[in-house]
Amino acid sequence: MQAINRSKFIKQALHSIGAAIVISGSLAASAANAQSAPQGQIVIPDDVKMFGNDNPNMRRATAVVNGSVITGTDVDQRLALVLAANQGKVSDEEKKRLRLQVLRNLIDETLQIQEAKASDIDIAQAEIDQSYARVAAQNFNQNTDAMDAYLKRIGSSPESLKRQIRGELSWQRLLQRNVAPFINISEDEVNEVLDRLKASKGTEEYRLGEIYLAATPESHDQVAQNAMQIVQQLREGGSFVAYARQYSQASTAAVGGDLGWIRLAQLPGELAAAAREMQTGQLVGPIEVPGGFSIIYLIDKRQVLTADPRDAVLALKQISLDFPKGISEAQAGAKAEAFAKAISAAKGCGDVEKVAAGIGAQVVANDQVRARDLPGPIQNAILQLSPGETLPPFGSIDDGVRILMLCGRDDPQVDSGPSFDQLMSQMEDERINKRAQMYLRDLRRDAIIEYN
């Protein structure tokens, strides 16, 4: 493994610090003889009193990793991202644990960036800025200026998030160069899995999110405790995607821990046993697995090579009626009942606009609604309708009352399953992930880390 090159700036800084320590040691020695010091010698009294406060903007080192400094400010700004994902609902004691985990993550991130640089892999700033803009648009529905302002408002910074992006891109590029070329999946292996997949037609497959925390025998108990704290925060409303990005040590961290669609046979036995009993939206963990702990979240499940009704594309019309201000619940109930009766008189979707106009209601049409994207109770009920039929009215006093009418439905085609190339890519990714974990363990083992 190539040695990590330290920058000239860091060397100069460390040299200056060392010089300062030598000078202060000499001054301390001379202080002992302050009473008999000859004229012209620097004299420092025993009862030294410092005037003025420390500079609040001074960045103090929390850890120095192979010469690269991680400051308390770095930790605070990355921690702010996690706290924002939990809407600030984190106890002081939990914040201390989170700080330690964030510091460990920053150490790993630093090692990954350093190793990539040692392999002559440099991520252009333009690529980082482009990824930052994409994160702002996809995850926060904001432009970069609004994203900058948001990060500063929560106590983080654009630079902190961009450093995380640099770490992810550096590590991915490094694995592509140093690991991926040595991963070999034979055609026979892929064909064997394809045959098993066809034989399992009708059985269920799962879309899971995972947060993986590596543990050694020495760190086992501490990592287990950290994992339990993460589970608690997630159950209190924390964002699984945000926690996966910050804490997971699997390669899927960059995509929020999403493992994609997999069958239980593809999972370690411990995870397969847990997933088999899970319901959609359920969180389970921490589960001890070889090498660490996993927290899993069931995003969805479906039957293998079988059309799922929830993948149907629906044409819907929503008819809505606002309630007057100050209306009572009883009055709203009566008005909703009359509204439903009026809409039921409509002769299908072609007549609903005319009926709605007669009672002062509004109609919105959308013919590209996936049943899977609707809320659970509505999703199940609307799949039982025929064109022209409606769901019962729903809403609130503040939002008014609404009715959904089904106007058409395009049923999904039978899923043919992954292609040969798709399955080979998935198998390669799994093996790269295992090698990546070993690679990072080696980097940690060989690192020189000084803590403040």
From TrEMBL:
Residues 203-300 form the PpiC domain. SUPFAM superfamilies: FKBP-like, Triger factor/SurA peptide-binding domain-like. InterPro entries: OMP_Chaperone_SurA (IPR050280), PPIase_dom_sf (IPR046357), PPIase_PpiC (IPR000297), SurA_N (IPR015391), Trigger_fact/SurA_dom_sf (IPR027304). Keywords: Chaperone, Isomerase, Periplasm, Rotamase, Signal. PROSITE patterns: PPIC_PPIASE_2. PANTHER family: CHAPERONE SURA. This is Parvulin-like PPIase. It comes from Novosphingobium pentaromativorans US6-1. The gene is surA.
